[in-house]
Amino acid sequence: MTTTTAPSPVLEANGVTMRFGGLTAVRSVDLTVNSGEIVGLIGPNGAGKTTFFNCLTGLYVPTEGTVSYKGTVLPPKPHLVTSAGIARTFQNIRLFANMTVLENVLVGRHTRTKEGLWSALLRGPGFRKAEAASHERAMELLEFIGLAHKADHLSRNLPYGEQRKLEIARALASEPGLLLLDEPTAGMNPQETRATEELVFAIRDQGIAVLVIEHDMRFIFNLCDRVACLVQGEKLVEGTSEVVQGDERVVAAYLGTPFEGAPGADELAEVEAAEASGAQSTTSTEGKAQ
Ligand SMILES: Nc1ncnc2c1ncn2[C@@H]1O[C@H](COP(=O)(O)OP(=O)(O)O)[C@@H](O)[C@H]1O
Ligand SMILES: [Mg+2]
């Protein structure tokens, strides 16, 4: 008799498709993230990774498909997705530049505080109590990411790597069960990248599942239990780091080498054929001119 319990899905994307006019940026993507997992999402620029995140978080309403969090289908509204338990960071840092580090984290907490508008305006005892608790939790999170000593600094004065960490703290402030990270180490030096790796492990150890987009393959393969590779909006390969690392289609996708059956390969072949015939006629014209 087996005693292992089946991993329970935190996130389930089913057949998610996102079209912009004639462009299909994400095509029928299925992806599951289970409790306790760190899952990586890789793929060349323009593959549809950020668009997929936007579909998961309600920023975009998918053309087709559903997104479920812990078994419940999510309405495609960012605030409802956040209060359900999904938090994210952005590929381009989105902090309030003129707020302090602490204030930025407090902003992330507002979905979790129950105090109403009047209570806040009148600054009654309930509000002050909630505010004190929020403040304490925000400081705890700053401690966790190693920025407590800069709580009063304006966020715009932080070096880039620390701004990225602060974004993670702000996302954690909504007390998520799933954290989505869009290129968390972009622009970081190798030490900062390694520290971010440790931070993501620590987040996972606190019971938060993680889905991370990143171009740094060493980071991805060290960190992730599973990796999915998107190419031209389609999920090409999914598996353990070893499986994905050894898959020649993934290598080909990054190097831009077309392979048989690749998404868009037929179109690419047509374009190449057209270009080749165009080039030939140019050459022959030049030949005549000589
Ligand atoms: N709001 C939008 N309107 C039109 N096209 C978009 C929009 N967002 C993304 N795209 C297109 O979708 C494709 C995928 O982009 P993106 O998801 O940003 O890729 P990645 O994050 O993998 O680099 C690109 O061709 C991009 O131009
Ligand atoms: Mg992107």
TrEMBL record:
UniProt KW Coiled coil keyword: no
The residues covered by the ABC transporter domain are 11-257
Which GO molecular function, any one, fits this protein according to its record?
Answer: ATP binding
Question: Which regions are flagged for Polar residues bias?
Answer: 280-290
Keyword tags: ATP-binding, Nucleotide-binding, Transport
Q: Does the keyword Nucleotide-binding apply?
A: yes
Task: Name the source's superkingdom.
Answer: Bacteria
Q: Where is this region: Disordered?
A: 271-290
Q: What is this protein called?
A: ABC transporter ATP-binding protein
Organism expressing this protein natively: Streptomyces cellulosae
The beginning of the lineage is:
Bacteria, Bacillati, Actinomycetota, Actinomycetes, Kitasatosporales
